[in-house]
UniProtKB/TrEMBL annotation:
Domain G-protein coupled receptors family 1 profile, residue spans: 61-317
Subcellular location: Membrane
This protein's name: Neuropeptide Y receptor type 2
SMART domains given in the database record: 7TM_GPCR_Srsx (SM01381)
Membrane topology: Multi-pass membrane protein
Family per record: Belongs to the G-protein coupled receptor 1 family.
A GO molecular-function descriptor: neuropeptide binding
Amino acid sequence: MSPPDTSNSSGEGEAGEGNFQLNDSMGLHQPGFHTDITKHLGVQITLITAYSLIILLGLLGNSLVIYMIIRYRNMRTVTNFFIANLALADLLVNTLCLPFTLVYTLLDEWKFGAVLCHMVPFAQALSVHVSILTLTVIALERYRCIVFHLGRRLTWHSSLLIMAFTWTVSAVLAAPLAIFREYRQEEIPSINLRIAVCSEKWPHGTSRDGVIYSLFMLLLQYIIPLAVISYAYICIWVKLKNHISPSSRNDNINRRKKTTKMLALVVVVFATCWLPFHVFQLASDLDLVLRFEEYKFIYTVFHVVAMCSTFANPLLYGWMNKNYRNGFLMVFRCEDKPESFHPEGSFRTRSVRGPALNSRNGVPPPTAV
């Protein structure tokens, strides 16, 4: 989950532990070799621009999502609590991972010391685990309520306990990336250079444990959750499609269809963004791509694609959900109009804690989706 441990990425030779690679012809060049495409000025400008946009959009969009859920009572629903949990996980990546990953990619040297060497890959893996577990919980909760007609949804106390559980489990699963990590000084005698390196260091000095961990994570972090989520949303969609109800409930069914479509699209975007990175990471652990001349560049491109998932969700909410769209516009216009939240755009089942903000303006509280 961390940047490739390379001083350059020609892949013509290897030195040290992990995937740290050195060019056999290093004695002819100073760091910043012409064989590494990421050293080209145009590529570096592109990478800086891409990472900066991801960080900016991620910070802005996810902060807005959390702010709206905290600020407006009508937005404090179980599904929105889980959406806020997704946003918090993405904010973790935007603040604690991406800036350091960009610098390490451009400089080929870890400038941030031993503590962050262990924390950055751990934080990124933690975020991904929290995201996929939260998406799974959302799918299963909607499956429980829609397919089995259970009117009583989770309470906010239960949702908070589930979120705490997802963070705890995610921390345990991500822990090996913090434990089996090494910060060291790498000597390059041919050019009398000493650089700081942050790389994986698995027990017994072999990559076998790393390969096992990657396969295990691919199953737990990607294949199994997406299989469960896909099954849940397929069942939900079939149920809603075939549902016959009185005309008075048609609006309710349509709202559920719209929200289910939006949440399913969030999963599709997440899976699409992370698939190339997962495949390439596994191929790297199996030593299938380390010899590619542009290994580092390919890794970086796939990492950028994966990180796009950290800002995609707020865009989807604003595009497909009326309440989020109105809320975003209110913030940008420096307005405070709770009446802008409409029932057809809400995630709420029913008000169980008294009149909502909208009732002060003669607008009924949001209804079920």
